[in-house]
Amino acid sequence: MIEIFNRLKKNPGLFTKIIIASFFVNLLALATPIYVIQVLQRYVAYGVSSTLVTLVVGIIFVTVFEFFFRNIRHRMTRETESENMILADRVMKKVVSIKSHFYSLQKNFRPDIVTKNLHIVQNTLTATTTLILIDVPFVLIFLIALFLIHYQLGIIATLFIFVPFVILNFYRNSINKLNQDAMQLGLGTARLHDNSSSRFETIKYFNLINAVKSAWASIVERNIGVNEDLEAKKSVFTSFMGSSSALLTIIIIAWGAVLAVDGQISVGALIGANILGSRALSPIIRFVQNIEPLNRSKTALNELNQFLKLPQESPSGSDIKDFQGKINLSDLQFRYPDSKNPVFEGLNCGVEPGELMLIKGSNGSGKSTLIKSIARILEFNRGQIFYDSIEINQLSLDWIRANLTFLPQEPKFIDGSLLDNLIGPAEIKKDKMTEILKSVDLIDFVNSDPNGIKMPLPNRGEDLPFGIRKRIALARALVINGQIVIFDEPTESIDEKGRNSIYSLINNLLKNKKTLIIASQDEVILNKANYLIDLDIKPVPKVSKNIK
User: Is the dihedral of CA 404, 407, 413, 419 positive or negative?
Assistant: First the structure.
């Protein structure tokens, strides 16, 4: 609710127009009960046809005006929904500008939760919801009209205004609890679906089908029970809301009839009072029914605001003109936040253009961590990394990425064509691209598809063999043609022909005076290295010159 009014306050002129339009909409809504009262008191009592015609024509004009006012104010209020697009734009900009260090460390980061929260906000904070909130104060117009007919009817309607809030307070906790249970069960169901589809070979060939079926039966049974309870609570809640309106009608008619028999009000006033009572209660019921969605949107917005506070990459930084490609590491240390022991520390080494530094070690020893630190994907805890003589944190990230030929261990792609994933918005000559594809043994794969290099990569390329994905990632890295070349396990899961292509590529890169840093256990690459970093030596890795 607060967010809606904060959005309105940003544009005082628009807010004023909406309030004025809402005033006239609710004022014109008085026309119907006044029309009923006048028909019963004037036409029915005296039978003058011209009076009836005048009243009918008047109410038609008023109804038309009310219709146009309602649509005009809704159109004006829709301008506030631009805030949803602004929020979505801020979220998207944050997603692409968050420090890569955060993404690498937050293994449980859920971008789908960010998307879900954004949808909740966009679907709740709408023009319709805004007008529901704005209409609540104008209930006073109908209550005042009731008090003018008879103060006792006004008191009855005023007391009934609080009934929906009492009903909500009674059911709120139980409905919220069931909603949370349903959401958790939904996540569990999605997890089972993912297990069954992405791990079908494990399930089928290691006889885990019964375990999956058992888990599925359990979650389905609980899901049915929770959903039944939730729907039952919602049904009772909605029924009580409807019944409160019906009960108000019953009491106003009954008490009004007593007043009419007593001569304190007319029959026309009695019918009009009933309409006014319904008009007064209706906005309150709509408001109460939207309290829980508004609370969910508040929670979602708070989570989005926390997401928007995450540290992002700084666009500032210097460039290096005539970059040679010297890399030096001085007293480097890296430790993960949830670990007491550093992955490595006291690391001192350097590599010159035309040289190869190889990082070796067992699985989990920190090869990828060191690779990502040198590429400024991860932020080290202590020490310095120099590109030529400039400390890495002083350099522009855009400049680093433009001068870095980087191959990650796990190749990742986006939805789009192969060409999109290889070059993005850049341009490259056809001959150069063909040369790159041949150098990574990818040309036959490209030629096998009718679309060639413009072939689509459905499912972000996840359905392709790992070796092909590795080759695509390698080709994408070579498109950059950076002076620094960093490869993380380039020959892993590659066949012999592919490995030979990579060995030849490494030789060419060294001949072209590129600076190579490679994490690998490959003996052939090891024999090509000028320097070795052994991360199996803890905590200070062993750095040595390779004797070929």
Answer: positive
